Amino acid sequence: MNRKIIIPTGYMGSGSSAVTDILREYNNLNTKNADFEYIFLHMPGGVFDLEDKLLLNNNALRSDEAIKHFRSSMQDLYSLRGWWPGNYKKYVSKNFLKILEKYIEKLKTGQFTGVWYYNEKYKGYKLYKRAIKNRILKLLGKPNSVDKFNIEYSFINEKDFYNYSCEFISDFVNELNIDEKQYVVLDQLVLPHNIYRLTKYNSIEMFPIVVERDPRDVFIMNKYIWNPAGTPVLYPLDVKEFCIQYKSMRENEKNCNDKMLRIKFEDLVFNYENSIEKIESYLGLQKENHINVKKYFNPEISKRNIQIYKQEKYKEEVAIIEKELEKYLYITDKVVLSNENPF
Fold first, then answer.
1. In this structure, is residue 279 part of a structural domain?
2. Do β-strands 149-153 and 110-114 pair in parallel, antiparallel, or remain unpaired?
3. Are 215 and 321 in contact (CB under 8 A)?
């Protein structure tokens, strides 16, 4: 079966989980672990980093570091139970490390026992131990000792890299898709600014749904609600620094709107039916499969989390955002909410 991967994603605090909740209401989608974020492509040391190192900045030594860093990062995802994006042993499959090594073995051109500068960064105790050892060898008239390591290298071509990477992603999905449904939902598999990469992974059908949210609400919610509650997102709490980061983040994104569906979080609430129609049209879903309407995402409930920025006490910081991030604001004159703080 040709799997189709649906990817709810967004801009840190933009509300992409609302789309995930909506998708959970359809009976023909695999939404196993729907609240879990799958970051193995874009995380530091993930597949996209491996792609850049092997295809853009490679040599025998560089590829050894790339492969080892990638393996270590994936092993952390598998084994670290207390790490929120980890514990793949539970949330993906006990076979994850097997498909990982299968992927790495296909990527590798070869391996040998050797030494290179990356492994010779001796510090602290190891530096003194090595110096003493080599001093003794010198007094005995013997050559300095050289530590050797297993060097794994790869000079893989682009075509093979993307073919094997797509196989790895497919193997990953097959471990999750035990119910044999055609559509699989993988939350945060890619982020808006790396969706452009998917054109190279074209043997897999992926459907990103990017959720945007008014940055005024994102800033106010993060600073005054999420951060005090111990659940902040990665934005500065200074409003001017926030504007700099948010603007540069959005401007850095490559234009690939033809490869995604963009949905505004506010429209999911205020224009619910129209938004559902857009999602169904984009994914080819049928209304009759939407059997649990509003069970997981109820727009009436979500209204409490929208336009918090309109409260009088936030007006100075909001004014700065309105000036600096005007093009990203959600503008409507249809909705006027109370200034009463619902939190």
1. no
2. antiparallel
3. yes
Strand 4-10 vs strand 205-212: parallel, antiparallel, or unpaired?
parallel
Within 10 angstroms of residue 66's Cβ, the number of other Cβ atoms is 23
| Contacts of residue 135, Cβ cutoff 8 Å, sequence gap at least 6 | none
- Whole-angstrom distance, CA of residue 299 vs CA of residue 274: 13
Residue 97 three-state SS: helix
Determine how many CB atoms are found less than 10 A away from the CB of residue 83. Answer: 10
* β-pairing verdict for 4-10 and 29-30: unpaired
Q: What is the dihedral of CA 35, 196, 45, 170, to 10 degrees?
A: 60
307 belongs to a structural domain: no
pLDDT in tens, 30-73: 998 888 999 999 999 999 999 999 999 898 888 999 999 999 99
Question: In terms of residue numbers, what domain contains 129?
Answer: 110-153
Residue whose token pair is 């933009």 = 14
Q: For residue 94, tell me if it sits in a domain.
A: no
Cβ-based neighbour number of residue 89 at 10 Å: 16
Rounded to whole angstroms, how far apart are CA atoms 316 and 336?
Answer: 19
State yes or no: pLDDT of 343 exceeds 60: no
Residue 164 to residue 102: CA distance in whole angstroms: 10
How many domains are contained in the chain? Answer: 1
C-alpha–C-alpha distance, residues 225 and 243, integer Å: 19
| Residue 268 near residue 261, CB atoms below 8 Å | no
Q: Is residue 127 part of a domain?
A: yes
- Angle of helix 60-79 versus helix 47-55 axis, rounded to 10: 170
